[in-house]
Specification:
This protein has three helices and no strands. 11% of the residues are buried. The protein is an all-alpha fold and 76 residues long. The chain has one domain. Helix 1 packs antiparallel against helix 2. 91% of the residues lie in helices and 0% in strands. The longest helix has 27 residues. This is TspO/MBR family protein. It is a multi-pass membrane protein. One of its GO terms (cellular component) is membrane.
Length: 76
């Protein structure tokens, strides 16, 4: 699951900035957000500290999702 997050995280920048595909980038970063949230939930049962340490990453990605959506909507 973490490997999928790395690939998704790596793919977002070229989609958003390189190709200018704001809608595709939004879908992609939302999927990334879902994977991060699922990882936090899985970690919560194994190690609460590990899950808590992922919360800033989830929070930052939430901000990025909202920002990506806003840019996409404002540029349509």
């Amino acid at each position: 699951m973490y490997g999928v997050q790395l690939v998704l995280n790596l793919a977002w920048t070229p989609l958003f900035f390189g190709l200018g595909w704001r809608g595709t980038a939004f879908i992609e970063i939302f999927v990334l957000w879902a994977f991060i949230a699922a990882t936090v939930a899985l970690f919560w049962h194994r190690s609460r500290w590990a899950a808590i340490l992922l919360l800033p990453y989830l929070t930052w990605t939430t901000f990025a999702v909202v920002l990506n959506f806003s840019v996409w909507q404002l540029n349509n």
